[in-house]
């Protein structure tokens, strides 16, 4: 079931989640300052183990500790140094965000965790196989993620006084569906997951996140052929995409998504600084072309779109990250009051 009424203003802009560098306070100040309608808890993967998407999500899991081995994250019997580091980083980041928003009190704050399929693809079982290859372990991880999200949402809400929007990051989902993930030997591939199975598991976590937050749930996938229909049928209220990579995505999938009342977070501003200066029209053009291609009135951008960078900003310079957030903020306003240069 989708949440049809969006709780943010029509001029809202936001970003995917990651920021450059290791200074949590500076990242939080930048995010809250540039994106007042939908700021988010920044991720700083440059800090290493426990600060990346999988490690960050592992810090939220309930009773499923992980450790780092040469091949990546692996389930372990007891919490160790790696798990404690991830939990500590998350707690300190929440302390920082609480300090930064104190006195500002945003209406909403966004948090990001790995979705169930990206998590299950990125964590190994004891023998080295991915969690997603074991149906029992897969269900256990989805359940732990759902329970942990409920606690995480409650903590963020208590600290910030804001409504909490959950974003599930699923960058690995297309590879899961296509059977493109390698086995431990590296010589084979993990069997593809059928779409109904992928949809049902994702739907269960989306519903758990929505029940915990009472807010729309975002699912992010920045692949060049995102499974938009699957994400919509799984119940995502907001689907976050790289709008510069949608040429091969079927128009009917995208059109039906907007028709169904789903909001699209459109990745438009480059995640890395481009070689030459870009204008507001330059970054808006993929959105304008998308709307025209689908046959919608451009007012749909104000009603059912939120501009973002094309992906996370972890690889950007600090200066470009700030500029990128400024640009998406300007896009959010321009979606509502388009400049004359946007005329067809």
What does this structure look like?
The protein has 344 residues and is an alpha/beta fold. The protein is 44% helix and 13% strand. It is built from 12 helices and 9 strands. The protein has helices spanning 24-34, 53-58, 81-101, 116-122, 135-160, 173-178, 195-213, 228-233, 251-259, 280-294, 300-304, 318-336, and strands at residues 66-69, 72-75, 108-114, 123-124, 163-169, 217-220, 238-242, 263-269, 305-309. It has a 6-stranded parallel beta sheet. A 3-stranded mixed beta sheet has the order 1-2-4. It starts with 23 loop residues before the first helix and ends in an 8-residue tail after the last helix. The model has no long low-confidence stretch (mean pLDDT 94).
Would you kindly provide a brief summary of this structure?
This protein has 344 residues and is of the alpha/beta class. The chain has helices at 24-34, 53-58, 81-101, 116-122, 135-160, 173-178, 195-213, 228-233, 251-259, 280-294, 300-304, 318-336, and strands spanning 66-69, 72-75, 108-114, 123-124, 163-169, 217-220, 238-242, 263-269, 305-309. The strands form 2 sheets. It has a 6-stranded parallel sheet with strand order 3-5-6-7-8-9. The protein has a 3-stranded mixed sheet with strand order 1-2-4.
């Amino acid at each position: 079931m989708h949440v049809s009424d969006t709780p943010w203003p029509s001029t809202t802009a936001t970003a995917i989640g990651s920021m450059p560098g290791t200074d949590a306070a500076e990242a939080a100040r930048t995010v809250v300052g540039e994106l007042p309608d939908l700021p988010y808890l920044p991720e700083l993967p440059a800090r290493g183990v426990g600060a990346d998407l999988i490690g960050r999500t592992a810090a939220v899991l309930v009773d499923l500790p992980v450790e780092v081995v040469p091949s990546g994250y692996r389930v372990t019997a007891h919490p160790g140094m790696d798990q404690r580091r991830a939990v500590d980083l998350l707690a300190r980041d929440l302390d920082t965000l609480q300090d930064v928003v104190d006195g500002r009190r945003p209406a909403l704050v966004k948090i990001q965790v790995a979705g169930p399929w990206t998590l299950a693809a990125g964590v190994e079982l004891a023998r080295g196989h991915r969690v997603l290859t074991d149906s029992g372990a897969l269900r256990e991880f989805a359940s732990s993620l759902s329970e942990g999200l409920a606690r995480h949402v409650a903590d963020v809400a208590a600290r910030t006084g804001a409504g909490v929007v959950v974003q599930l990051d699923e960058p690995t989902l297309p590879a899961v569906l296509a059977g493109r993930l390698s086995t431990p030997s590296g010589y084979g591939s993990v069997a593809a997951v059928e779409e109904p199975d992928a949809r049902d598991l994702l739907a269960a976590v989306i519903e758990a996140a929505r029940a915990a937050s009472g807010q729309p749930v975002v699912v992010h996938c920045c692949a060049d052929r995102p499974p938009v229909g699957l994400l919509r049928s799984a119940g995502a209220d907001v689907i976050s995409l790289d709008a510069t990579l949608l040429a091969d995505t079927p128009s009917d999938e995208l059109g039906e998504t907007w028709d169904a009342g789903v909001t699209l977070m459109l990745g438009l501003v480059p995640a890395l600084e481009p070689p030459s200066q870009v204008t507001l029209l330059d970054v808006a053009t993929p959105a304008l072309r998308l709307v025209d291609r689908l046959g919608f009135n451009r007012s749909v951008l104000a009603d059912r779109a939120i501009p973002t960078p094309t992906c996370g900003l972890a690889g950007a310079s600090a200066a470009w990250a700030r500029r990128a957030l400024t640009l998406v903020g300007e896009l959010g306003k321009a979606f509502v009051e388009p400049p004359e240069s946007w005329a067809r």
